[in-house]
Design goal:
Blueprint: E1 2-7, E2 10-15, E3 18-19, E4 24-27, E5 30-32, E6 38-40, H1 44-52, E7 57-63, H2 71-85, E8 90-96, H3 101-106, E9 122-125, E10 130-133, H4 142-159, E11 168-174, E12 190-191, E13 196-197, H5 202-216, H6 219-226, H7 245-255, E14 276-277, E15 280-281, H8 287-314, E16 319-323, H9 341-345, E17 352-356, H10 375-379, E18 383-388, H11 397-403, H12 408-425, E19 428-433, H13 444-462, E20 471-475, H14 477-482, H15 485-499, E21 507-511, E22 525-528, H16 536-549, E23 552-556, H17 572-579, E24 583-586, E25 590-591, E26 594-596, H18 627-630, E27 636-637, E28 640-643, E29 649-654, E30 660-666, E31 671-675, H19 682-691, E32 703-706, E33 710-714, E34 719-733, E35 738-751, E36 756-763
Parallel strand pairs: 4-7, 4-19, 7-8, 8-11, 11-16, 16-17, 17-18, 18-19, 20-21, 20-22, 22-23, 23-31
Antiparallel strand pairs: 1-2, 2-3, 5-6, 9-10, 12-13, 14-15, 24-28, 25-27, 26-29, 29-30, 30-31, 32-33, 33-36, 34-35, 34-36
Helix pairs in contact: 1-2, 4-8, 5-8, 12-13, 16-17
Length: 764
């Protein structure tokens, strides 16, 4: 019996009545030889040593009998080897739902179709399957759902007849490229060379009609909302190539303008094709684009719910796992894996979502960004599982260099940091050894480390796990679909990948809809990161929560600018109704640099008055798989928003435009802070938090994760560092098993660069 239920204040996976506290492991054991035959590489000693280190849950890949008639024979062999090496192992069956290649030719309505009708082949790769397809099958196809669903039902049913079926605790369902429910780079959503775009298959049109019917109900309401007398639910308009301009081309044109700009001329207006307002899709001019993209994401989520329901109805005593919710390391708009998380969390059939951590800043001295708003999972009694594919000195020299993990010290400190993040943020995790047959963690020192971490995890689960954060970062998945990829990268990814762990105070992360949940805790400060698309009802929920908590609200860039259900969908009036501040817009393209004003205020008094803020100025750490993410990237504001509220106090001004960049106003029941850039640094957040009355544990900007009972510190510089505590605290280092101080309010300790210390904190 496997289930999700609360344990010491937070959700946990339970197996046969006991919480599953230790991480899971997935070792890639399969490869194909020169004849494309599947070969199994299984090292029993590796699995025995992992079990001695406390790890008990292991994933095994499996295709359906539909795709591979001997799939269960292969699974049987690997399961047998695993249980021989680890007799008490728990098994997570990882199913791939690719159709046979022939299916795509037999079902021409169900694959991805482009506006020009040209077939675009794709290469699909997973841990247990690899093949070239003439076209990519649609993850929104109802025919694929039904055929793959029958195949899943057949294969799962046969698997449960195996003598080891009682060891299977979960069904991990995968599809799409790399098992992550995506379409891969080839084919992409757009073919710029051919000016062609996706969405022209009958499979998608059916899904789009279903989406619109659910949202609007009737043609009359759709026509009223879209201000189009000819549109219909049964024949929805598909966006043209030009209507996708906002998603990525605007980023390029805004940072490298199409026209040459001479010193002797005025700056010309930015390029526009009439389908967007700067980096926003224009919901008034072409509402179908936003809803097309939203349907694209929701359709993938609905497919996952469809398959999860099959498993849950057959075996309610097993949990289901999917990869979804990416808000990092992906094409936010066109990927299809970001905008339907809320649907999944509200479903009774999906128990867990997982993703790898972001790859950009994993180097020693940096930290690993997360792709989802993990604390929202706890409110829905779901589990977020962090895929920790942390690199070690066992990698080849290319990957050792990319992540700067060269020796055992680098390796151990990186593994400690990533483990500490999961404990402090209270997330389940699994280690992923992608090296064929297992090599990444096949090191005696890592076995010893895993054993220590197993003991730490068990202790962490035995304590009150209720988080005590005073800052909430609030995100919105609909907004990701309405703005350019670069805007979401700047607002969301830069914050998560480079800033959030350097604030020096614990933070929780939620979807804005969680503010309506009576179980959501209260916070002293809410940072509304990318809540750019909000309905009237959603704005009211947010304001009611702020007033109830008497909180400080920090609004980033363009809060509530778009309302897809309003008559006038793109309006600064929407922003005023949310922030209680008069906001103006300049529909030009500006840089984001600003300086704090000289007049002292509690927010800006400790910040440098000549230094530039509002952009990303730190060294961008290497380690990204996409080289463009490593390069310095300016933040652009197109359009630019700023306060014109006579009752607000302006604290900073943009350097090039002179408009107010940061403004603060005391409102009815809460304090409103408008922050006009897309990028915010950890020092600014720290001062905003101090203004809100938040306790700061670390002032130095080193990587610091603060949990209910632990602090993980990863040094970004050698030397002395100091932690500050709310009240007298006993502090011990869990790996050294050394007490650093009893009943102290301040701790100074010394580290080398990249060293990780994990402190157990106990307050009377």
């Amino acid at each position: 019996m496997t289930e999700i239920k609360k344990y010491n204040g937070r959700s946990a996976i339970f197996v046969d009545g006991e919480p599953l506290a230790s991480p899971m492991v997935f070792v890639r054991t399969r490869t194909r030889d020169e004849n494309n035959e599947l070969t199994l590489h299984f090292d029993p000693e590796y699995f025995k040593n992992l079990r001695k280190s406390g790890i008990r849950s292991f994933m095994i890949s499996c295709n359906t009998l539909w795709l591979q008639p001997d799939a269960l024979d292969v699974f049987d062999k690997e399961a047998g080897l695993l249980l021989e090496a680890v007799p008490d192992a728990y098994i997570i069956a990882r199913f791939g739902l690719h159709p046979p290649v022939s299916w795509t030719t037999e079902n021409p309505d169900e694959y991805v179709e482009y506006s020009d009708g040209v077939a675009r082949p794709c290469h699909l790769f997973t841990e247990s399957y690899e093949a070239d397809y003439p076209r990519m099958y649609s993850l929104l196809s109802q025919k694929w759902r039904e055929d793959a669903g029958e195949a899943l039902k057949e294969t799962w049913s046969e698997l449960l007849k195996r003598p080891y079926a009682d060891r299977i605790i979960a069904c991990f369902i995968t599809a799409g490229h790399t098992s992550e429910w995506g379409y891969g780079a080839n084919p992409g959503m757009l073919s710029s060379k051919d000016k062609a775009c996706r969405g022209y298959s009958k499979a998608f049109r059916r899904e789009f009609s279903s989406y619109l019917r659910e949202l609007y109900g009737t043609d009359e309401e759709l026509r009223r909302s879209w201000n189009d007398p000819d549109v219909s639910i049964d024949n929805p308009p598909i966006p043209t190539f030009d209507m996708h301009y906002y998603a990525s081309q605007v980023d390029q044109d805004s940072t490298a303008p199409r026209q040459r700009i001479y010193a002797a001329q005025d700056v010309p207006p930015p390029y526009s094709n009439g389908t967007h307002i700067g980096s926003f899709t224009d919901m008034d001019a072409c509402p179908q684009t936003y809803h097309f993209i939203r349907c694209w994401h929701h359709g993938t989520a609905k497919s996952q719910i469809y398959f999860a329901k099959i498993i849950k109805e057959m075996t309610p005593d097993r949990i289901t796992i999917f990869c979804y919710g990416k808000q990092g390391c992906c094409n936010h708009v066109h990927g299809g894996q970001s905008g339907g998380t809320r649907l999944i969390l509200e479903s009774p059939y999906v128990d867990c979502l997982e993703n790898p951590s972001v790859y950009e800043n994993r180097v020693v001295g940096g930290f690993v960004g997360q792709r989802v708003v993990q604390d929202t999972f706890n409110l829905h009694n779901k589990i977020y599982i962090c895929q920790d594919d942390a690199r070690t000195l066992a990698e080849n020299r290319f990957w050792r260099n990319k992540y700067q993990v060269y020796d055992m010290t680098d390796t151990i400190d990186s593994l400690k940091r990533d483990f500490g993040k999961c404990i402090c943020d209270d997330m389940q995790s699994w280690w992923f050894d992608q090296l064929i047959g297992g090599k990444r963690y096949k090191i005696p020192e890592i076995y010893d480390l895993f054993a220590e971490q197993d003991a730490i995890t068990k202790e962490a689960y035995s304590l009150d796990r209720t988080k005590k954060s005073e800052i909430a970062f609030v995100f919105d998945e609909d907004s990701i679909l309405a703005v350019s990829n670069g805007t979401s990268y700047t607002l969301v990814e830069t914050l998560r990948n480079h800033v959030i762990a350097r604030i020096g105070a614990p933070v929780d992360q939620y979807d804005h809809n969680d503010l309506a949940n009576p179980e959501m805790p209260s916070y002293k400060m809410y940072v509304f990161v990318n809540t750019l698309v909000l309905t009237e009802e959603e704005r009211k929920v947010i304001r009611d929560k702020l007033k109830k908590d008497g909180a400080v609200a920090v609004w980033m860039y363009a809060p509530g600018f778009a309302d897809p259900m309003a008559d006038k969908k793109m309006s600064v009036e929407n922003m005023k109704k949310l922030t209680d501040m008069e906001i103006a817009m300049d529909d030009q393209c500006f840089d984001a640099n600003f300086r704090w004003d000289g007049e002292a205020h509690p927010i800006n008094k400790a910040l440098d008055k000549r230094k530039l803020y509002g952009n990303f100025y730190d060294k961008r750490m290497s380690g990204a798989t996409n080289p463009s993410q490593v390069l310095y990237r300016d933040t652009y504001l197109y359009p630019l928003f700023y306060s014109v509220d006579k009752d607000a106090k302006d604290l900073a001004h943009f350097a090039s435009s002179g408009y107010p960049a940061v403004s603060v106003k005391e409102c009815d029941g809460f304090t409103s802070v408008f922050y006009g850039s897309k990028t915010i640094d950890h020092a600014t957040i720290r001062e905003l938090a101090r203004f809100a009355g938040v306790h700061i544990y670390c002032e130095s900007g080193d990587v610091t994760y603060v949990g209910a009972n632990y602090i993980t510190f990863h040094a970004s510089s050698s030397g002395k560092h100091t932690l500050y505590f709310r009240k007298p605290t006993t502090v011990s280092e869990v790996y050294e098993k050394k007490v650093y101080g009893e009943d102290i309010t301040e701790l100074t300790f010394e580290t080398y660069f990249g060293e990780t210390k994990m402190f157990r904190i106990e307050t009377k």
